[in-house]
Amino acid sequence: MNGANFRLHPMDIRQLETLIRIVETGSFAGAADALCATQSTISARIGALERSLGVELFDRSSHRARLTPKGQELLKPAQEIVALAARVRHQIGNAQALTGTVRVGVVGLVALTSLPKLMSAVRDRYPGVSVMLDISLTASLVDKLREGAIDVAIVTGPLDKSGVTCVPLGHDEFVWIAPSTLNVPSGRMTPVDLARWPVLGLSSQSHHYPVIERWFREGGAEYNPVISCNTVRVLGDLTLAGLGVSLLPRRSYAAEIAAGMLKVLNTTPEIAPVELVALYRTSTTNSLTHAIAALASEISEFSGRL
């Protein structure tokens, strides 16, 4: 572009967010889907941004959207500006005035415990906001977050936090639990001892799977579940049905434990508490994402808050 004759145009936050979404999704079409806009609108925003700066930001000779050196130089400041604008809207704006739809991904553990309380708090504090829920595994939800398919992910950690803002929600204690009908001994049990009983487990796609597999392996036993599934709630139902022992969140099944339907096994070594976090893309301009993540932290009942 020739900088001698161009006229300076005002820069728009939406233009910067559009640039970020193109980079995240890899295409103008992907950005259009993520921003609920037409592809022509996306192209127009980038064209206006390029005219305002007097430089080309994308290499049009490639089929995939690739930033030029000037585009690469703009990316980090754009992310910082977009994130700051969203924080200002969240902190200064009137909560009652927030409207729109926010897409929230939640792991089964949270769906089983604090999701109803969170949704009730959203309804009370942000009456103009609609929520679309996606219940899935951590890995799937993190992928969807990075792709722009959801706005907030409430998942288990630890995980790679590059490109996302992480709001700690605390930890949940997982313990080995057996149905009373199995008559599992009350004495101390090692992984070898536990492996003699039918073990119900989370699927290999679960964030918990490596932890469980390592617990058995380091204890000299093989993790070989007789039934696997991908949700904690189903795992708990199968345990209550007397089909085997499983690793479950103690707090979620406190009532069944108190009633004698389930019992906590005395296993060694202990399994470390599971971290819970709320994630959103650092570059997002949607103040709803900040609001939902902050609210999830505020109402969290998980222990060991950081």
UniProtKB/TrEMBL annotation:
Keyword DNA-binding: yes
GO molecular function: DNA-binding transcription factor activity; transcription cis-regulatory region binding
CDD domains: PBP2_LTTR_substrate (cd05466)
Keyword Transcription regulation assigned: yes
Domain HTH lysR-type intervals: 11-68
Any matching Pfam family: LysR_substrate
Database matches in InterPro entries: LysR_HTH_N (IPR000847), LysR_subst-bd (IPR005119), WH-like_DNA-bd_sf (IPR036388), WH_DNA-bd_sf (IPR036390)
Keywords assigned: DNA-binding, Transcription, Transcription regulation
Family, similarity comment: Belongs to the LysR transcriptional regulatory family.
Protein's UniProt name: HTH-type transcriptional regulator YofA
